[in-house]
Amino acid sequence: MANDAILIADSAEMSVMIERMVDEIAEEFGSRVDDLRIIGLQKRGVPLAERLSAALEKRFNQKIPTGKLDISMYRDDIGMRKTLPLIRETAINFDIDDRIVILADDVMQAGRTVRAALDAITDFGRPAIIRLAILVDRPEHEFPIAADYVGQVSIWDEAVKVKVHWNEIDSCDRIIVQYD
User: Fold this and answer.
1) 14 vs 84: CA distance, rounded Å
2) How confident is the model at residue 79 (pLDDT cuts 50, 70, 90)?
3) Could you tell me which residues come within 8 angstroms of residue 42 by beta carbon, excluding any fewer than 6 positions away?
4) Rg of the chain over CA atoms, in angstroms?
5) 58 Cβ partners below 8 Å, 6+ apart?
C-alpha cells in the first residue's frame, strides 16, 4: 500500500458491509426473490453485484440473474475527456421488464455514473423497480440520486480519492483513501 494511503476497511470489514446490504435487500424483496436482477456497473461494481448475488442465492437457495453494464457511452462528459473511454462488456442476458433491478457500484460521489446507468438500463427494458447498492457513498452528490443500500458513508475532503480494491481485480479486498 502506498505511503499516503489510509486503510478505511479491510477484507473482513468489507464482508460485513456486503452482508448488511444483503440483509436489507432480503428484507425488502425476500418475498419477490423471483423478480430480482442484479447488475454491476463496469468495472468495479461488477464484483459487488456478484457478491450480493452469491449471498442472496445462498440465502434463498435460488439463482439470481446477474449482469454487467458499461455506461461509458452514456456519460454526460464523454466529449469533454482528453481520451476516449475504454468500452467494457455489457452482459444482460435476462429479461428486466417488470423486474426488480439492483444496480451495484463501488463508490458514488457525484452521481453522474448512476445517472448514466439509469439512461443505459432503459435500452434493455423497463424494470418495475430500480434500486441502487453502493459500497462506499460519498455525500457530495451533484444529482438528486441516493443509494438504497450502502456499505459505508465516507466523508473526506474532495482532494481525497476513495479506492475499492477487489480480490477479483486487485488480488486483495480493501478500501483505501488517498490524496491525488
Assistant:
1) 32
2) low
3) 68, 69, 70, 71, 72, 88, 89, 90
4) 16
5) none
